[in-house]
UniProtKB/TrEMBL annotation:
InterPro entries: SP1917_dom_sf, UCP033199. It comes from Algoriphagus sanaruensis. This is DUF2200 domain-containing protein.
Length: 121
């Protein structure tokens, strides 16, 4: 599937605070916790719980969110299909990073063990 520059820009301009409640709902519906969600977000971005809340309060875009992040060195190990796209083939960095996050949230909701989600061995 080919991603257009317009769809890349749309994703970059999406507000993190507007998507975050959907992440919480998705994982809690499957018996996981907000704390586990934050652990996954922190692993990917290097953000603390306070940083995550600050991003929500500031209503940052995903572009701003990921510009402030320090991606985990193992983030490139996040592979597979999310939203119809193979994550590792997405060229636009912001779109790929958002899909990394989507994939981690999806794995959390599907009940994967935290060690697997966080690419630890």
């Amino acid at each position: 599937m080919h991603v257009t520059p317009e769809s890349d820009q749309k994703i970059a301009n999406m507000k993190f605070f507007s998507v975050y409640p959907h992440y919480v709902t998705k994982v809690e519906k499957k018996g996981r916790t907000k704390a586990e969600l934050h652990q996954v977000i922190s692993w990917l971005t290097g953000f603390s719980d306070e940083d995550i809340q600050k991003m929500i309060n500031e209503k940052v875009t995903f572009e701003e969110f990921f510009s402030r992040a320090t991606l985990h060195p193992n983030a490139s190990l996040i592979t597979g299909v999310i939203c119809g796209y193979r994550v590792e083939e997405i060229e636009f960095p912001i779109t790929r990073q958002v899909r990394y996050l989507d994939k981690l949230v999806d794995e959390l909701a599907k009940g994967k063990k935290m060690e697997k989600i966080l690419r630890e061995g």
